[in-house]
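Tokens in:
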């Protein structure tokens, strides 16, 4: 991580940052709790943020941003925009329930949840399974703007789509190399932690900012309130646009399986597996790029050592194996899926997974997935470059043996 080199910035981005160096950007772009909350109330016309279990994380996050993130002018503008949307999403969700209490009666039936190591194929598997009409995945635009509740009749021409498209594609305009790592779009499904940002208990926050203070707080929290609020959001999203089964995804679920099953007891969980040495190197590049988007602060590898070292990664993977072997999880609802199989023979691998889920893949689903793969061949958006080392392969031996994960590095 200490050798990570930030990519060159587009000229317009650097000019904005340079101009901001001579301004009082903290006064011009305030990140003060009460002011942000008041602005969100004025923007929406609503006043109720729901239960108060989000407030502590909100204040810790804002303090960490001011003291540790070292945001440049463009970074502060992007951050303020994000925070206001998260606050406005809460206000909208609470307004929907106040106006229509029957939303609480919605049932989230047997969601399929994809998790696994970051950069282990969770995104491409998520996008492929989303081609099956039996699944509904929360799109970027409805996560960003959940109120008013989306309606089936206007789901693909809702005016919120265009606004979201500009905001989510802004990332690759600020750091063009990001496009080689992750495709963004308003109608592309996104991770659960993005939706959970409005709870301010989400790995999405330390994934975008170097904020050790928030990290220290977050990893000591009970995450059940965040998962419960996410379920509350999903009920709003399906109320006027029903889904047969939700298809959800986030690598962070891997460390929170007990909480996930507590809130979604009938979930079926797919765990993707990839050579952890390759996945770890890829995560380093992704994190560095996300931090560089909003700050010129050097990538402080030491601040993330406890999370990002091979030793820490292996310990987390071993903890997952211990949990699986403990009998405390419904193992019949857990399914393993190898990234290697998806790359080598995607359709047979997908058919086997559907069979394991008790949902045989039909011709329509197979054709939709084949068409998606044809539109998105590996490397379509540029090659994601990173270096790897095999020096600590032994650390991951238990994980690779337990799940039959082949070496790539």
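Residues out:
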């Amino acid at each position: 991580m200490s050798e990570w080199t930030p990519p060159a910035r587009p000229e317009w981005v650097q000019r904005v940052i340079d101009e901001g160096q001579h301004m009082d950007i903290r006064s011009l772009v305030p990140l003060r709790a009460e002011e942000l909350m008041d602005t969100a109330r004025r923007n929406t016309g609503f006043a109720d943020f729901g239960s108060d279990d989000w407030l502590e994380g909100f204040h810790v996050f804002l303090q960490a941003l001011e003291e540790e993130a070292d945001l440049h002018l463009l970074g502060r503008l992007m951050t303020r925009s994000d925070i206001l949307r998260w606050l406005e999403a809460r206000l909208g969700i609470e307004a929907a329930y106040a106006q229509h209490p029957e939303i609480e009666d919605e049932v989230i039936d047997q969601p399929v949840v994809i998790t696994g190591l970051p950069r282990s194929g969770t995104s491409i598997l998520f996008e492929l399974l989303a081609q099956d009409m039996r699944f509904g995945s929360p799109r970027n635009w409805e996560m960003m703007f959940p109120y008013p509740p989306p309606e089936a009749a206007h789901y693909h021409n809702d005016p919120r789509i265009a606004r979201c498209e500009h905001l989510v594609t802004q990332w690759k305009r600020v750091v063009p190399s990001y496009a080689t790592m992750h495709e963004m779009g308003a109608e592309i499904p996104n991770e659960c932690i993005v939706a959970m940002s409005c709870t301010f208990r989400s790995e999405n926050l330390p994934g975008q900012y170097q904020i050790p203070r928030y990290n220290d707080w977050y990893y000591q929290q009970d995450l059940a309130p965040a998962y419960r609020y996410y379920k509350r959001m999903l009920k709003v999203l399906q109320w006027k646009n029903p889904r047969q089964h939700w298809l959800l995804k986030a690598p962070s679920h891997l460390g929170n399986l007990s909480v996930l099953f507590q809130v979604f007891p009938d979930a079926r969980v797919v765990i993707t597996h990839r050579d952890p040495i390759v996945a770890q190197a890829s995560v380093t590049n992704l994190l560095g790029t996300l931090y560089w988007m909003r700050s010129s602060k050097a990538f402080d590898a030491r601040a993330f050592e406890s999370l990002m070292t091979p030793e820490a990664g292996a310990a987390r993977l071993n903890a997952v194996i211990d949990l699986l072997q403990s009998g405390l999880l419904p193992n019949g609802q857990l399914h393993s899926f190898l990234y290697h199989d998806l790359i080598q023979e995607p359709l047979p691998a997908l058919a086997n997974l559907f069979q394991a889920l008790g949902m045989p893949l039909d011709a329509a689903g197979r054709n939709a997935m084949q068409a998606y793969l044809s539109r998105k061949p590996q490397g379509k958006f540029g090659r994601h470059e990173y270096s790897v080392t095999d020096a600590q392969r032994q650390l991951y031996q238990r994980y690779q043996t337990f799940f039959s994960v082949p070496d790539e590095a």
